[in-house]
Amino acid sequence: KLSESNRNGFEVSALSFADDKGKALIVEPGETVYRTFTIKNTSEELQELLQLELDKNADSVFRIINGEVKEAKDEEGEDAGVLPVGENPVPWNYDQDEETPLTVAASPKRAGVHECVLCMHFKGYKEMPLSAGGGRKAQTFVMKRHISVECGDRKMHEELKPTAVFTGKKKTAEQRFGEGTSTQHVVHFQRPRGYPTVLVRGAPSQDKDTLAQEIRQLFAEGKLQEIKAKVEYAEKSFFFREGETRYRDYKNLFELLLVVEEAQMEADVRNFDMSNVALIETHGRDRDERGEASYYLYVAGLGENRPSVVIGDKVLLSPRAHPERTFVAYADRKDLRQDAARGNLKIKVSAKIRDAAVKGARFDVRFTINRASLEIARQAVLHSNELPLGLLFPSRPTDNPRQELVSGKIRPINFTHQKGNEINGLQREAVEAILKNDVKDAPFILYGPPGTGKTETVVEVILQLVLDARKMSRVLACAPSNTAADVLACRLKRELRFSHHHDSQKMIRIYSTTREYGEMHKDLKECSNWDGKKEMFFVPKRDQIVNKDIRVVICTCFVGGQLRDFGVKKGDFDLVIVDEAGQATEPDCLAPAAAVLGDSEGRQNCGRLVLCGDPKQLGPMVLSREAQDTLSKSMLERILEMRAYKKHRGKYNSKLVVRLLDCYRMHKDILKLPSRMFYENELRAEGPPHDRLQNWNGLKARGLPIIFEGVRGKDMREGNSPSWFNNHEVEVVRDYVKQVTAGAGIRPQSIGIITPYRKQVHKIQKALGREFQDVSVGPVEDFQGQEKLVIIISTVRSNRHFLAFDRAHRLGFIDNPKRFNVAVTRAQALLVVVGDPKVLYHDKYWGELLRYCRDRGAYKGESLEGIEKAEKDDDYDAWEDQHLISSSVGLEGNRDDHEGPSWSRDG
Ligand SMILES: Nc1ncnc2c1ncn2[C@@H]1O[C@H](COP(=O)(O)OP(=O)(O)OP(=O)(O)O)[C@@H](O)[C@H]1O
Ligand SMILES: [Mg+2]
Questions:
Q1: Taking every annotated instance into account, which residue ranges of this chain make up the domain Helicase MOV-10-like beta-barrel (predicted)?
Q2: C-alpha span between 268 and 262 (Å, rounded)
Q3: Of all atoms in ligand 1, which is nearest to the CA of residue 424?
Q4: Which of 111, 517, 533, 675 is deepest in the core (most CB within 10 A)?
């Protein structure tokens, strides 16, 4: 085992490419930098330097030069010369106190951290004691030094460097503020006009909500075991009962889980409370007629949804001078998102606080959770008995004749305008099964691997309904996330245009009133609920949704669950489709169906429920450990496990379930690996060859449109944000964007960049600037359901130290099959992965992709040889901790110090 320390009296001076302040130097590609160090013998014995050796990692980046060298011109000098490294021994004798200067020259050519180990082999002589025979004895030993240099675009690194030293989360006096607010004097301030409120019918007021209070109490007392026991009890009855009692068990279980999850959110939001802060003035024009004003609060993590605040959310302010008072303020309506990226939360305050704020008062701030989506889900569960039991627990399917949702024969519509595209057999089976609607109650499930046309099939179903002038069926199409709902809406809109129905407004995309203009897909403005005059999304009335023109409503599950509160009646819709259903918790998935299907009496003509998705892609996000086991299983997944949905004699019952297998999205080589890893090699490449970039000269392996670029980067954080970024990867990603746009003529709109951390999203957006603002950058969650011609993935992590943590908390990209699967299956024609080979090599999933690329010559970067052989090396780990994370980052920390799943739920 080697040691970094000095030994046997030999001293090697410090050796690092850093500036005077110890900050790493960024060397531009092609530049050479020099660092001189000395080796000195401080012992009384004669010692010998046998050999200097740079390990293989040095590639052509590092050289050792004899003597002192400061600049390139010295290198030409007489004494200086490159030492023969590695092969010939370099015997030098060192007398006492003798020292020699040596120089390390670094000329990195590629972005990232370059490192190697310098090994110095010495021979020393030791006077032996008489007892051991006396005389001098030779002894060889090795000393080593890690050398690293950072290479990149200096200007970009300067622009993206941490804005503030990472401080972690401060736990201070806010605890005092967090407790006992109920006894405080709360100064209410009426929600300003036009601010959204989500009305939830039937929701108990908070102090009447006994279950919530009980759970909250257990939480406060730290009795998590008791909560766990309750959940387990409810699960038991849920899974073993039969018959009608099941409604009750269903409600008991899911209501409990939702309440537990809410208690967890409430506990988590406390982490963001702030104490002793001032309000910052905004421009005067924000003052409105009631004399209320808007102020900014600086909230560092806001851009990463920590905390997550949407328009109209309550923020509680308590003046330091009058801690017994609490003022209510509301997250402002205008530019909330835009300001949030900079950490500014705009809030509307009442005239009363304004007066105090003007005088420079300081406040303690408490955030509240937006419980609307949880309450919607809970109401869905509580009203689940209005749905037929077979919808929740489909057992043996029974016939349901004469319930067709369309009149006449089914002729494909969606695929007719795209030359060469044809609806395939399985897709057609699914469309027909859904529209014929001839089994009673049971949900229809359409599932299958990425890119197999699930969403496309949903579009076809909707078109069939919309363009059928006789039956006039109405469909509610939902998805758990806004991005997935937008994908559906955009495709449907395009198809409607092709079918010459653009003038009749057949569809409406309803956004939540808590969203802003900038969060709407720009192609959907005309068919959305945007009110241009008031500059906000309006709450549609029943006759704006249910009328003779509009036949399809597209929204998130959350908004779908609110339709009843908008006045929509049961029976208004004939079909509810949830796309990406695998990403929703069961209550979220149920919400749209519970709002519009079934009825409290006869359960005639209940309407049909269709769930689409892929259980191998991302599942629902659940925070509470106690609720996780059950709540993170989607309804899609649960129902697929039921007997009626399994293969019998090698075949599915296509009245209930269709599994698609032909992939149209991806180039065949991009598809190969995920197909093998997650779908038993069953996925078949179909449709267009997606070969547009197959011969692009930027590829490492001609003909194979995948690149794995290994970049040793550096984990960084800033301020009190737990989110990570890695500027070396940002640079490489930016360069790829430039290359594919300039070199291959790809439009920015056709490029997507996926990365696990919000901070990295912001840094990449900043580096891309205005020129490339149409490139979509986001976390995997936002990409589920989407596709792009070119996908670039930045995996961020460079320090192995954090991997165990990431793993334990299911964070980031490592050891996360579902995230991996979604990320690598979005690209049609080119997939680029930028990441640290040392970290990724040992990951089950990324490692496989890395080796897949290496074996086919598509890997770029540091050689993998060293990594393959690497054994556990504590010295190396210590070195890594020092160098591959920015200096101020603490290594330990609890869950709050790392970016977790964002606890906001998409509204
Ligand atoms: N029968 C078909 N012929 C030609 N192209 C098709 C066909 N079906 C789907 N496609 C195309 O394949 C691509 C992927 O389809 P789609 O997005 O619907 O897949 P998906 O199963 O919903 O994927 P994901 O699981 O990622 O949501 C789309 O570009 C779509 O237009
Ligand atoms: Mg899809």
A1: 287-367
A2: 10
A3: 1
A4: 111
